[in-house]
Specification:
The structure is a homodimer. By secondary structure, chain A is α/β, with parallel strands linked by helices. The N terminus of chain A is likely disordered. The longest helix of chain A has 18 residues. Chain A folds into three domains: about 55 residues, 434 Repressor (Amino-terminal Domain) (Orthogonal Bundle); about 130 residues, Response regulator (Rossmann fold, 3-Layer(aba) Sandwich), CATH 3.40.50; about 130 residues, Rossmann fold (3-Layer(aba) Sandwich). In chain A, strands 2-1-3-4-5-11 form a six-stranded parallel beta sheet, with helices on both faces. The first copy, chain A, has a four-stranded parallel beta sheet with strand order 7-6-8-9, sandwiched between helices. A two-stranded antiparallel ribbon of chain A has the order 10-12. In chain A, helix 10 links the parallel strand 8 and strand 9. Chain A has twelve helices and twelve strands. The interface between A and B is large, with 62 and 62 residues. Chains A, B: One of its GO terms (molecular function) is DNA-binding transcription factor activity.
């Protein structure tokens, strides 16, 4: 390849005509044998397959796509620049799709609607068989426009349209696992420190944590949820505020691992023992944070890779058998480390 | 789409025959007008383009690929599961390629040679115009096999074959920026704590740091490089070891931000003021680490997104005009924060 002119096939690449010649059949027959279409004697098909093997022939997928109407390609669209949350979802999906012969076209929209439209047009032009959309937030998002009838699955960030297929994390189950673990280890004065109230992840986990406490006739240690930022600095500040209000707090359930790490640092620097005096639970199982924390954090793992994998499987089902609308929930896991 | 049978075009999707009919030309002429091939009167071509516009016709890219021999698709292969280092490289490449009409096929090999071969066969079958390979390490890697003559560019992890095209970070320049910044702010007893000696990134940055010190007739504060792990825990342990050997150390240059954060924590917990008594410089500008550190870290930014962007541009050049072997180096930036 030394110029922009049409590329000729490499000399070493066998053509369908070579296969046909070796098998002693017409090019049309060779093509039908390879596509599994048309009627022919089994011996004829076998002669073609033997010739394919002998010549190391590899069919041109673009020609195959024209024939089958399928591109064996799926668009993976991420709206947040491939961050910490979308990456494992993408990997889970890529793993499930790539195990077969399906390739993944990566589209990063960076939350920009013009980029999203550009990528969507491109995916439509390339006749993708389906699209997976993911983002960093668990808040519902409006469905993609102009892609009918391409099957689409929304992963992590569900679609606002109930006629779509979405795969989401079980925030209710995650909050329940965290609070029940603290209750089971004898904690009863539990504070909740989390991210911004306008994030569904913060609101949902807080609401479900309170539900679990109420079932044990308990409430939050400080009588309220401490909404703030998803940062260590907020965790440190909030720990101080909680202990001013409720000095007998014996556990913190935090909305993410960064907040939990900040809480653990603030407690250590006040001379409080974690978990001896106060237990700390995070959320996300982000290894960099959870393992570097002193002590390492007990946390909730959303299994984002599994969310990606299930999204891929639901997409393959939709491509093969038509879409079945609905929201699929992937369970969280409790990962116990030294902070509880 | 409700079954696996060949998908019929959506009723709303105009066909080339519709374009030809509206323009009053044959399908062959319409095709030539769209592909820019064949001789015809400018008015004829314009009539076809007007019909395309009027009908909202979008050409089938698979048919186009058969015609032009180009798939307008590039493989992006990452060998480390899309980690913290490969992600910005992928994004930079995707941005540079996606701005045009080139799509990106994502392949994640997870360091597994069988997965790599599977993905490569798939990329060859799909007639990709080129391949970008990236990984998490700066150590040279063996070139991909069996892809001739597909142009390939190695990003971040260079190819061991000098006949290949590689785009790498300027580790020498990065180490120089860090040490010269410390010297410029009056530090002369500088310790170096870094990752494992068998990583090129650790060895190269250490060697270049020593070179810069020697040019000022200085050596490392402890007389040696402290090789260990890329972790906060190692940074904390190493800070203690350095201060035992050389209590008058006035600065730490660290091989990554996690080590630097560990050093900063250990110094604070010993009651030492950063940067008042001891300055700390990290490497990577990994925002989660550098900003959460107390104080926030001065660090070296490798500009991984730029490495991806340059790799994409070199690949486009190679596709259009033939590959020009060589190693391209992307400069680092010094990001000054409160730790110096």
């Amino acid at each position: 390849m030394t110029d922009a002119a049409p590329r000729s096939p490499s000399p070493s690449r066998a053509k369908l005509a070579d296969v046909a010649a070796l098998a002693g059949v017409s090019v049309g027959t060779a093509s039908k044998a390879l596509n599994g279409s048309g009627r022919m004697r089994p011996e004829t098909r076998q002669r073609v397959l033997d010739a394919v093997e002998a010549l190391g022939f590899r069919p041109n997928q673009h020609a195959q796509s024209l024939h089958t109407g399928r591109s064996w390609t799926v668009g993976l669209m991420t709206t947040d620049g491939i961050g910490r949350f979308s990456t494992p979802v993408l990997l889970g999906a890529e793993d499930a799709l790539g195990a077969g012969k399906i390739s993944v076209l990566l589209c990063d929209t960076r939350g920009d609607s013009i980029r999203e439209q550009h990528h969507l047009r491109n995916l439509v032009d390339r006749r993708v068989d389906g699209i997976i959309v993911t983002g960093r937030r668990t808040d519902p998002r409006p469905p993609l426009k102009g892609i009918e009838p391409i099957p689409t699955v929304y992963a992590l960030s569900p679609s606002t349209d109930p006629a779509d297929i979405s795969v989401v994390s079980d925030d209710r189950g995650g909050a329940r696992l965290a609070v029940e673990h603290l209750l089971a280890t004898g904690r009863t004065r539990i504070a909740h420190v989390t991210g911004p109230e306008h994030h569904a992840a913060a609101r949902d986990r807080a609401r479900h944590a309170v539900e679990v406490l109420e079932r044990s006739s308990l409430g939050l240690a400080t009588g309220r949820v401490h909404y703030g930022e998803w940062s260590e600095a907020w965790g440190r500040r909030a720990a101080d505020a909680v202990l001013r209000t409720a000095p007998d707090t014996d556990a913190f359930f935090c909305g993410n691992d960064q907040i939990a790490r900040g809480v653990a640092d603030a407690l250590r620097e006040r001379g409080l023992d974690v978990p001896g005096e106060i237990a700390v639970v995070g959320y996300d199982n982000w290894d960099t944070m959870a393992l570097a924390s002193r002590p390492p954090l007990t946390t909730i793992d959303m299994d984002l890779t599994e969310i990606g994998r299930i999204a891929a499987l639901k997409l393959l089902e939709a491509i093969d058998s038509g879409p079945v609308p609905g929201v699929h929930t992937v369970a969280c896991r409790l990962v116990v480390r030294e902070s509880t």
